[in-house]
Amino acid sequence: MLRIALPNKGRLSQTVLDLFETAGLKAEFSSERALVARLGPDFEAIFVRAADIPEYVADGAADLGITGADLVAESGRDVKELMDLGFGRCRLAVAVPEGSAIQDASQVPGGARVATSFPCITRSFFHELGTEIEIAPVSGATEIAPHLGVADIIVDLVSTGSTLRVNRLREVTTIMESSARVVANGRVLDDRDLRPLVDGVTAALESVLRARAKRYLMANVRRDRLEEVRRIIPGINGPTIVEILDGSEWVAAHAVVDQDRVYQTIAQLKEVDAEGILVTRIERLMP
Ligand code: AMP
User: Fold this and answer.
1) Where are the beta strands (DSSP E) in 160-249?
2) Residue 36 above 80 pLDDT?
3) Which residue CA neighbors atom 14 of ligand 1 most closely?
4) Closest residue (by CA) to atom 7 of ligand 1?
5) pLDDT score recorded for residue 13
6) 90-178: CATH homologous superfamily?
């Protein structure tokens, strides 16, 4: 049995549960407030704070974990990153009060007070710039600190930037980009019994992510236009062509297409007189 540490609440938790469910690994809780759940026959999930996950994985209390790259970096723990899940995207950034003359983190003066819940990353970032700063540790609502006079500037996670703007702060420098990552305990990767389970779960998650970027497209097309259809929807190995009962000069063409090009693809198919175009989501895709 492989144990996977997942965020118990916060921004990543529901998205992670949905991802596992789509991958065929639905969390089965034994009671409503259980902190442990079965994830299919081979896996067990433990639900802990996102910030504690690198620690649990490094210690071996869990074999795998899913959490933000920012939290992995802040923990300084030795875990192996296996996958970037691509959601939970944000950046850890330095922000200053709107009226400040500072345009770049390199202009932050020595002794500046920096409010952040990422003290390790922040201290080493400024240290590399040759600036020794003072940390004002906070565990949330960091953007309020300069207005309360407890800090001069902040280092915080930003996704759209709207929270900074509302709090009259200006982003000056990105320290790191973050998104949800799958991390592993290094020993598990060398374990002959556990390694296949690790590979199984990452392949299942990858198949879901790959499928999300694709759509399955079906269209009725004229047999004599198949060469043009092949150029429009090359698919993975060329489109699948299916006979239509009593279709005479018509056949059905099926192909996997890029989700972000579906609009253009449909327009191109209409130009070759395709009919009955149908686009559906794909649950999992294993090439
Ligand atoms: P939380 O919801 O505070 O438990 O955050 C968990 C993780 O979600 C963070 O460590 C980040 O990796 C990620 N995250 C993604 N977008 C944001 C954002 N705009 N603000 C804070 N965290 C974010």
Assistant:
1) 169-178, 180-184, 214-222, 240-243
2) yes
3) 88
4) 68
5) 97
6) Periplasmic binding protein-like II (3.40.190.10)
For ligand 1, say whether the CB of 93 is within 6 Å of any of its atoms: no
Q: Look at residue 58 in the predicted model and tell me its pLDDT.
A: 98
For the Cβ of 204 lying below 6 angstroms from any atom of ligand 1, the answer is no
Choose among 113, 99, 98, 109: nearest CA to 153.
113
- Asked if residue 32 has pLDDT above 80, the reply is no
Closest CA to 11 of 56, 59, 67: 67
Tell me if 54 CB under 6 Å of ligand 1: no
pLDDT-based confidence at residue 33 (cuts at 50, 70, 90) = confident
Architecture of domain 214-281: 2-Layer Sandwich (3.30)
Domain with CATH 3.40.190.10 in the chain: 2-87+179-210, 90-178
> What topology is assigned to 2-87+179-210 in CATH?
D-Maltodextrin-Binding Protein; domain 2 (3.40.190)
- Note the pLDDT of residue 201: 97
Residue reference for tokens 């999992």: 284
